[in-house]
Specification:
Number of helices: 14
Radius of gyration: 21 Å
Order of helices and strands: HHHEHEHEHEHEEEHHHEHEHEEHEH
CATH topology of the largest domain: Aspartate Aminotransferase, domain 2
Number of domains: 2
CATH class of the largest domain: Alpha Beta
Strand content: 15-25%
Distance between the termini: 49 Å
Structural class: alpha/beta
Bound molecules: pyridoxal-5'-phosphate
Oligomer: single chain
Length: about 375
């Protein structure tokens, strides 16, 4: 079955019995459930921190969409990452992470270093030979990357990294927040976990912060679920419902946004105030072929290096249709200076390593009419 069909009728495919014929998944906004009234049911609910039918419905759909052995939905994307680290790492362990990663991942790993002596080695994953050298000399328990990377927009060869991880018996997790399961399937490419923030494209309307983690291995899926309950990371039923509202339109939204981003990125490439446009959808992107092979849709987020800090500030200040907002993948277009917002937790050295300056602007293209967005940018840069 195609993803579009699965997502168009969640209530039908979510494996949560409903004898009322609801058209969409109901919200079970309840903390507890009466055991006596569930006699004879296959699944018995007792407490919403551990299981709730609304959240379970979304988890079952994500699990099918990602091709996993189990999914757990969390209250934020960062919480899903925390659950990943808690599941795979113990005090004193090491993790290898692509250096171009979300600022919140970097901040969380700093916390884990302080609290649990978990050490992180950051490197550039574009060169598999160099990565193998590092792996063969280290004792890593987990490899984590995003692809596309955020905000550098590199495309990493997930199959090649998965093969390396397997060779050295290291668990491999992909942060799939940007591409989503509408575009890319990390587990099919060899990853052990697909972790994602559903705050972004998946829910799509900026109405909720939420996350999910899908595991390939059934025993790891059980461990994730156990820890989510133990640590209280569960997504609320209402938030699960908000996430579910975005699902039927996800692939369609992403395709329209991709087309719009392509036009806007192509326009910006020839603008005199723009030094560089980093968008994997443009044919001159260094990993364009891989991007087209690995993803079905190129997510509508790209990065600009402007001629100066002043021009970057001018663009953001004067653009009317683009809010100055963190996050991406929503129906509204937005811009940010990553070094000031999403990546503010990076050290100066870490920013320099990935070439992020105050002239770098990240743009997320929404569902507005494309020419309106282009006109707005022209006006903003006058
Ligand atoms: C790639 C990536 N992963 C994870 C997160 C964290 O998600 P959340 O903001 O839902 O906690 C973000 C947030 O921007 C992100 O960009």
């Amino acid at each position: 079955m195609k993803l579009e069909t699965l997502l168009a009728n969640i209530v039908h495919y979510c494996d949560i019995p409903d004898d009322k014929g609801a058209t969409h998944i109901p919200i079970y906004n309840t903390a507890t459930f009466d055991l006596k009234r569930q006699e004879g049911n296959d699944k018995i609910y007792d407490y919403s921190r551990s299981d709730n039918p609304t959240r379970n419905a979304v988890e079952n759909i994500f699990n099918k969409a990602e091709g996993g052995a189990g999914c757990t939905c969390t209250n934020t994307g960062v919480s899903a990452l925390a659950l990943l680290f808690d599941t795979t790492l113990r005090s004193g362990d090491s993790v290898l992470v692509e250096q171009d990663c979300y600022g919140g991942t970097y901040r969380l790993l700093n916390v884990l270093k302080e609290k649990n002596n978990i050490t992180t080695r950051y490197t550039d994953f574009l060169n598999p030979d160099a990565v193998e050298q590092i792996i063969s000399r280290g004792n890593f328990k987990l490899i984590l990357c995003e692809s596309p990377t955020n905000p550098g927009m590199k495309i990493l060869d997930l199959r090649a990294i998965a093969a390396l991880a397997k060779k050295y018996s290291i668990l491999f997790a992909v942060d799939n927040s940007l591409a989503t399961f509408a575009s890319q399937h990390p587990l099919a490419l060899g990853a052990d976990f697909s972790v994602f923030s559903t705050t972004k494209f998946v829910s799509g309307h900026g109405s909720v912060t939420a996350g999910a983690i899908v595991s390939k291995d059934p025993s790891l899926a059980i461990k994730v679920r156990y820890l989510s309950n133990a640590e209280g990371r569960a997504q609320s039923p209402f938030d699960a419902f908000l996430v579910s509202l975005g699902l039927p339109t996800l692939p369609y939204r992403m395709r329209i946004q991709e087309q719009s981003a392509l036009e806007i990125a192509a326009f910006l490439k020839s603008h005199p105030d723009v030094v560089q446009v980093k968008f994997p959808g443009l044919p001159d992107h260094p990993q364009y072929e891989l991007a087209r092979r690995q993803m079905q849709i190129i997510p509508a987020v790209f990065t600009l290096n402007m001629v100066s800090e002043a021009k970057a500030a001018q663009l953001i200040r004067n653009a009317d249709l683009f809010g100055e907002k963190a996050s991406f993948g929503t129906s509204d277009s937005r811009m940010e200076i990553p070094s000031k917002m999403s990546h503010a937790s990076f050290s100066e050295a870490a920013l320099a390593k990935i070439g992020l300056t105050k002239s770098t602007v990240r743009i997320s293209v929404g569902l507005e009419y494309t020419q309106d967005l282009i006109d707005d940018i022209i006006h903003a840069l006058k």
